[in-house]
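Build the 3D complex.
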Amino acid sequence: MNVNEALDLLKSNGYKATGKRKDILDYFAEQDGYRTAKDLIIHLENGNDTVSFDTIYRNLHLYNEMGILETTELSGEKHFRMNCGNHHHHHFICNECGRTKAIDVCPMDDVKKSLVNYAIEGHKFEIYGLCPTCQNN
Amino acid sequence: MNVNEALDLLKSNGYKATGKRKDILDYFAEQDGYRTAKDLIIHLENGNDTVSFDTIYRNLHLYNEMGILETTELSGEKHFRMNCGNHHHHHFICNECGRTKAIDVCPMDDVKKSLVNYAIEGHKFEIYGLCPTCQNN
DNA sequence: TTTACAAATCGGAATCATTACGTTATTATA
DNA sequence: TATAATAACGTAATGATTCCGATTTGTAAA
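Done.
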């Protein structure tokens, strides 16, 4: 997902393409890992932009619902990143820099066999650690 | 893990077996799913017990570090349950009642092959949905 | 291009889980 | 039972997130 695809998606769903929305998309497009609402706020403030919590959180949630951003919760704080593809996948997440590596292994086929009377609504599979770069710092 | 095992573990590590600690263990022993600090507080208050946040959180963390309680984070809130065994396993977690079912499938052996230069520090694999009981309510 | 209105943003207060802290009480041990 | 260390109390502080009334902005129609 890139910025233009995301903007098109917004418009085709009747949402307005505002300046703030573009700024937020630009930020996540140039990152390649999970970032928090606070990371985003700091970035925008450095660009001499004013930001309201309302605007930040409303749009992060909207983007997540629309599939523009993926989200995960790490130590009590929501983290967001650009959606990196339409195929089902999971992530290695670096504890230091938040950057990710896609993992194509998914154990759900195996698991479903042992949950026959359960209604499965979702699952989470994440691997945490240090990426090659952060191991040398 | 049952209450007596946990109390022995506490004592053998030099921790005191206080009334509050027993109350907290009793609570988790009679539950069979993930519960929050708030769930515990409400339970203790109903028993006409006074509770300090300090006591609750300090002991929840202690129990987690000692392996007496397992923990996971669901929608921004930490959840705890009695440790249900020494073997490595994962959980199906009911979105309605918090009860769990152990899952023995673990995909990490497969995954490690694609993360050769990464330092793996942990992983999380959880399945969410409705248990058989909660589907009928 | 202006107008009009719905949608979005602003600024700040409120909320909720969790942590921190000085004081008081309880536990284990001698 | 006296002692010292550990734990609990009560409450204030913190940090992320949500909420809200007032104001501004984007878009579609005139």
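Chain B has a mean pLDDT of 94.
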